[in-house]
Each structure stands twice: as structure tokens, then as C-alpha cells.
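pasting for the record
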Amino acid sequence: MKFVVKFFSEIAIKSKPVRRRLVAQLHENLKSVLREFDPDIQVQKAWDKLLVETALEDPAQVQRMVEAMRNTAGITYVLEVVECPLPALDDIVDRVLPIYGPRLPGKTFAVRCKRTGNHDFTSVDVERTVGAALLAQTGAAGVKLKHPDVQVELEISKKTMFVIGRRHRGLGGYPVGSVDPVLSLISGGFDSPVASYLTMKRGMRTHFLFFNLGGRDHEIGVKEVALYLWQKYGCNQRVLFISVPFEEVVAELLTRVQDSQMGVILKRMMLRVADRIARDLEIDALVTGEAVAQVSSQTVRNLAVIDEVSESLVLRPLVASDKEDIVRLANAIGTGEFAANMPEYCGVISVNPTTRARLDRVRAEEARFDMEILDRALAGATRTRIDRLAEEDIQRTEVEVLSVPLAECVIIDIRHPDEEELAPLDVHVPVAKIPFYQLHSKAAGLSPDTTYMLYCGKGVMSRLHASHLVESGLPRVKVYAP
């Protein structure tokens, strides 16, 4: 099966050296992603497209591969095509009929042809000739140039013709890794995962920085969303998940800092640490999910005061976004469920928070803060490659991984519903569907006397959650990894 991958439009207008670099990055990203489905996948570069060829025939596998391409930044469209040598004008319809013939009876249609190269006919000639033949041979209701029921698409490139069977919309944006890296401050709410997604879509290799205010359960929840974003949109780029213990910092703020200033000062403390980590990683920019006026600490004045402590550029992709739009995008990219099932933890809630912080007053309050506590938090930070997050937890709790379901067990399919729908699990034992972002809240309903096997497709998320469930008192939890 063959696909034509169309680049994001901004790639096409770059200078030749930049365009070559961007296409090379997209080529590498796509090969890395698609080899998980087909180790022998063929991805070829052309000036205006990538050509993908796979031997896969199973519709479910092909659909999952298409979905992976759609979620790869740098792609505007993924086209399912039939490629053939360019036939004579009157014979083109013979190549089109097997694909579009069954779709046209009783439907209106239009033929669209894009053509490059020198030919003795025009694109309009192709559209008219093929359209007339299809109308005569398929029982179509008629030709309708505006808003037809079916659009018959052809592309002719020199001596080759592509009949486009299906067109799938991609993310757009730039290939991940083609733009400078950033360090994204991520929490359990709606905003920061969306901000991270947008930087990934724009081509930035996005590392994740988490300030732990709420203990291990909070950290696991944030690991889930970071891992989800990386697996779905990260193109297998090597990035870090960095966790900074911030409970002692919060305790110091609560005892030393005046109530109205705590929100702004907490953000300044986070930026101080983030800035130092970014410089150590040779990263020039931080990313946050803040939007102007969404909460008290996010007024323009407060954001200016917060940013004063950072030498790094602070990017805010959502700065002018409405909350409804952020939630809508979170749901579209699959992170909304995380926020809905894991309310964002905040250890500092001011009764009367300032909305117009004064730098002199903030500095005076910070003078009472023991900065050695901030140094200890930085020293206690852990850095883990995101693809090894599960291994970090498994080192504490050993979990058995099996390739065949046990006879007396219940498999818990913890995949995101979108992924589960594309490839339903087919086994001969009971299957419970509990998405991983709901697993913690529903764990109390699981029996310690039942053997559960967690399944997630790649085995990373299932191992992470299995170790956590064993620690929480469910000793018979295992991992199913066929």
C-alpha cells in the first residue's frame, strides 16, 4: 500500500537549504514512527512530498499507521494512493474506475487533477475526459463542481499518475526536532499539556519539567500526560521528564511570605529553578500554559514581575486564548480526560491575591525566604528519559510481564479510547476497559484476590500503572504484552 505525504505549506516556501533540512527531519521522524508498525517500511524523499510504501494489508494496522502519520508534525495531508505509469488520456479512467466506481452511483461528483511536467494535455482536459467517462459508466447522479458528494482526485507528476483514494488531514506545523528545544513546565491541568502540544507541533523538541507539590500520586498523573503527549506527537525524539520536589518550598512560602504575594512568588521560585535547569541543558526558552487574566497571577503586570527572575525566554503559546478554546483543544488532542480525572493540585491559595504585583514589595517578601531551600529542591530534581519512565517505577516494584493471558485473569485495557477503538483487543478472557487516566480513581473497586493483567499496546504505560497498583495493595497485578 502506498501513501503520498504532503508537507506543511510553510515548509514549501522556505529557502532550498532550509527546506532540505526540514524535509530531512520529517523523513527521519516518519521512519522512526512507522517502523513500529512495519520494520520494512519504505519512506522516500521527493522535492514536494514523501512517498511511503508498506506491505501491511490488515485494515486495522493500516488505519493505526495512518493515524500515526496524521499525528506527525510537519504533515498537512496523508493521501492513500494507487501509483501507476501515466496512461494515455482516454485510458486514465480505467485506473480511476476500480477506486471511485463503487462510490459514485446516485452521487454527484467532480474530478480534480493536479499536474506537473510537460504533457500534450492540460489538467482541465483530464478532468473533462475522466468526468465524462465516469458519468457514463457509474450511474452517478451528475457532475457538480461546487460541493460535490464525491471528489475524484488525481495527481500527475511527469510520467507517473497517482489516483488518490483517501485524503487524511495532518497536524501541519514543523517536524519535531527541526526547531530549537524548549523546557515546558507541565502540571495536571488543561493548560500546560496544550501548551506543550503546540510547541511540539511547531517543531520544538519539548522536554517536560514538573514541580511536585502534591506527592507521588500527583507526579504519576503528570507523568501519564507527558508520556501520552510524547508517544502520540513526539516522533520518538529523546526528551527528559524532570521532577523537582517543591513541597518544602511551598511550606516555606506559607510560613514566610505575606498571603497576597504567595502566588506570584511561587511562580518566581519555579522560574528560577526552571531557568537554571534550562541553562544546564543548553535550552534557551521555557514554556508555560499561562493565559492573560485567566487567574490572578496571570495579569500582564504579574507576568512581567514573574518573568523578571528568568534569563531564559518564556514562551506562552496560550497567552491570548479563552479557557473554552483551551479545553476544546485539550479534548481534541486527547489530554482533556487527564485534567478531568486529575484536578490540578495547588499548595498555595491566597485569600486576596494581588493582581498588580510591585517588584519592590515582592523582593522584600522574598528576602525572608530561605533560598537554601530552593537550592535543595534543585539538587533533589530527578531527570529521566521519558521512554524510561516506567522503568524508574518498576525498579521499586517488580511486576511480571507475560505475552499470553493467564487462564484465570481479567485483562484491563488501559489505552486511550481513541486507540482502543482503532484496534480492539481480541482475547479469550474477560476484558475491562479502564483508560489509564481513570485507573487510579477506580482502583478501589478492584479485588486483591483477582489476577489483573494491564494492557496498553506498547507496554510502557501498563508497567508504570501495574507497579503503582501493586504498591497500593493489589499484589496480583501483571502486565500483558503480546
